[in-house]
Amino acid sequence: MNSSTRIPAKRYVELLPEKGHPSEIPFGWYFVAYSDELEFSEIRVISCFWQEWVLFRDECGSVGMIDPYCPHLGAHIGFGGKVDGEMVRCPFHAWGFDSSGYCRDVPYAKKMPPILKKGPVLKYLPVIECNKIIWAWYHPGAVAPIWNVDNFPETMSNNWIEYEKVEFEISTSIQDIVENSIDYSHLKYVHGHTSTLLGETRQDGIYRHVNIGADVQVIDREGKPDSCHYSIELIQKGPGQHTIRYRRETELLMMFLMTPVTNEKTILRFAFTHEKYPEGSYEHKSVKEFMLEKLGSHGNLNGVHADIPIWNNKIYRKKPLLCEGDGPIMPYRSWFKQFYDGGS
Ligand code: FES
Ligand SMILES: [Fe+2]
After folding, report:
1. Whose CA is nearest to atom 1 of ligand 1?
2. I want to staple 120 with a disulfide (CB 3.0 to 4.6 A). Which of 101, 115, 139, 145 is the partner?
């Protein structure tokens, strides 16, 4: 069937009103930019959480994220706006706004409108920097942050490499993407794992821990086949912070970063880091192969590229027909429900 004639099945799912369903964006902290990609005094327009935002770093280095449309006469602050101290000035009449959405200066007015003192006049999102990443807190009801982002010291260590970054656009919800982590049976059919990967999941408040392990074949330093224990440890905090440690011949840390643009469009980023190994060493070669495996294909194993066509075309089955051997899909969904406004 020609793709333009396909029935957009997901739309029908989306039409069903239901709280706790992935027709919403769950609340939590999400990646919005890498710290090293936003310079001092830089302004950037980004799309996420259903709309455009102006992301900026002020002259002191603090980051803000505000609604782009000026409350004065509606100019888009992201197109021509400028950082001035701790404010961003609108390009139209130079009103100055801070990262809390307050208007702090109207340069030509002798008397500021009293309403400007009362509270923010622009929508803004709480933002923090942690693990060399800028995170924004999104809540559909504008509720203040309920938890913090966890710090992973490796990401800041001088003995570990700067992130190697990869980015994908995915046409599904973040709930669907993360469901992969406990969908043990797909690891064989989609990713080509021949050994049975046994997984264990623990859900603890806003945390979820997944540990998967198996003995796998690797090539040792002498170039001979050898068996080695392969472990995957996933730590998820809220819907948007996922850190995965892969251990085999070497250790690879991946920040699995998802930014919801809408409920059905997600930007997925992988940021890899590992210990610095001398170029040409066995460890260096192994860890690079390890990374390749997570992305595309390496040997018989397929990475995330194999998931993408499935994610992009699947529907959300509210009541999936499950069987023995499937991972704990429904416990995962019940856990995830707590991040939808009114879903717990
Ligand atoms: S429209 Fe922004 S200052 Fe006038
Ligand atoms: Fe997968």
Report:
1. 73
2. 101
